[in-house]
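User: Sequence for Transcriptional regulator, LacI family below. Tokens please.
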Amino acid sequence: MNVRIEEVANAAQVSTATVSRALNNLPGVGQQTREHVLKVALELGYSPSHSASALASGTSHSIGIVLPDVSRWFLATAVQSIEMALHERHYDALIYTLPDDEGKPRPTFNPTVLRSKVDAVAVLSVYFSEQEVELLKSLNLPVAFLSVRQPGFSHVGIDDEAAMRSACENLIAHGHRIIGHLSGMTNDTCPNAPTERRRRAWKAMLGRHGLECSDSLDSPARVMTAQHGYEAAKILLNRRPDVTAIVASSDEMAMGAIQCLRERSLTPGVDVAVIGIDGNNLSEAFGLTTVAQPVYEQSMALVTILLAALAGDTAHRELIFPTHLIARNSTARQHVDIAHALQGG
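Assistant: Structure tokens for Transcriptional regulator, LacI family:
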């Protein structure tokens, strides 16, 4: 049976407030009294309530993590990395999901879910509306965003445009002229979303090389998962069977594209090249060429920013991490001279 704080107070012959202060190492309790309370608590086997400790200290030693879900590789990896970093610093994590799949509108952010439960908030791959920004600010807590750039808040991420340029350069260097794109859904209200930045970079890169970059080559998926990537690839290939290469905004979507190609008896890297962005730990098993991003390092930086803010450093930070291309069989087509290819030779 759980021992209550009142029992510790009665056995130590002090008030419950004194017990709470003694156990949380707060001022207002003499050293002798503190040691006496700790001794009694140990003898009774008392385990303090996390919420009660938070009330007594004014802090929860928890960080809220707001994200769409934990099923996608990038998000799951980020959450795991953040939790590892927090635990090393004796913090807990409180997960708050705002699902964005199944064709339903994303739930509106509700600050009461986090109020009085966390000391800071990490937002992963979610863009907040102006109304939600005000709700977030009402918490009066440090906030930092991972992946999505939210104006007015600290941000950690990658150069999405550079990642897409690297992917396109790889395909163009292999002689591809008709390069399809599997993207996230277009969203005029979220111009800073990674998917939007990657889409713009895909168009700009192809345009720079005089290649077609029409909407018929862009096949968006509501959520960047393997299943949605598979469906988006089917639409793309049905609409544009002349595609010789596919660049996907995520590795999971690229994996779905590979499955779609195999079902059509097409060999990835021979008949149609495929490249993704992320560095998913399953990409090697798929033979997938990918532009890898350092998710662990980004997550560590996000935690550092939030804990620094809790220590008084409230300056907005912008940390951009480099990416690097890992070439595999999915883009193994024999190199063709670009100028020759563009002339139709």
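Confidence is low (pLDDT under 50) at residues 334-345.
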